[in-house]
Design brief:
By secondary structure, the protein is mainly α. The chain has 4 helices and no strands. The radius of gyration is 43 Å and the shape is rod-shaped.
């Protein structure tokens, strides 16, 4: 007899019954699927309004759904308005602080400049008086004349930053007017300084000739020196008036 060995027989495989399959391996049904809430809407993105989860069968359901949507929109708009309002307040507060610091520094510079501007006027007046004496007496002993022109830096950085950022649009009218007036006057001061630099060259060159050899200078040249000194004197007086106005403007804007 031939003996059959069971080792050569294929192993029995378990029969899988589709009807009795483990529930854990079955695909989830739409009803059992976990509903994930959409991510919150970022600022600047359009607001999403979703359709109701259940069919609307009556006017009551429709009105309830519409009321929910309207309330949600109103709440979102209110929150957005509060955030924007708070942002504007912070923007204006920072702009005020920066402008106040800048105006204080500019005020200190002008207060320091005022006595020096008055000293430049005395120099110009001395030049004019000397020329008058020379015209009366060609042998008048002229002491060496000198004149120097100083420049002073006034800053506009905080004001320009507030203008670019839009902070100035959220300031009240009186406050904005005070800032605008004082910064416009600062610009006038800087413009006068530029004019002074363009005029000082002729005066200094003429005085150099006068100091070197007075007897060889024609009367026409003395007239040129006199006119240049008169222009410089007028400029310095104007600078003094503008400086006084600036100090007053700074004090008004810093209140």
């Amino acid at each position: 007899m031939t003996a059959l060995s069971c080792n050569n027989m294929p192993e029995d495989k378990p029969v899988t019954n589709a009807g009795t399959q483990d529930a854990t391996t079955a695909p989830p049904s739409p009803g059992d699927a976990e509903v994930e809430s959409p991510p919150p809407t970022k600022q600047g993105e359009p607001m999403e309004i979703h359709a109701p989860d259940k069919p609307i069968h009556s006017k009551k359901d429709f009105l309830f759904h519409m009321l929910t949507v309207v309330l949600g929109i109103l709440i979102a708009l209110a929150l957005d308005g509060i955030v924007t309002w708070a942002h504007h307040r912070v923007l204006v507060r920072e702009a005020r602080a920066n402008i106040a610091t800048e105006l204080r520094e500019n005020k200190e510079a002008i207060q320091k400049a005022l006595p020096e501007i008055q000293d430049k006027q005395k120099q110009a007046q001395h030049i004019l008086a000397t020329i008058e004496e020379v015209e009366k007496n060609p042998k008048f002993d002229v002491k060496e004349l000198h004149y120097s022109f100083e420049s002073y830096d006034l800053y506009f950085t905080a004001w320009k930053t507030a203008s670019v950022s839009g902070a100035v649009t959220h300031m009240n009218y009186e406050e904005l007017k005070n800032y605008t007036d004082v910064y416009d006057l600062q610009q006038d001061f800087m413009t006068l300084q530029s004019q002074g630099f363009s005029q000082i060259g002729d005066l200094v060159a003429a005085m150099h000739v006068l100091n070197r050899d007075r007897n060889k200078i024609p009367l026409e040249r003395l007239d040129d020196i006199q006119r240049a000194a008169e222009r410089i004197l007028l400029l310095q007086k104007t600078l003094e008036n503008v400086s006084v106005g600036l100090v007053q403007g700074y004090e008004k804007a810093l209140k």
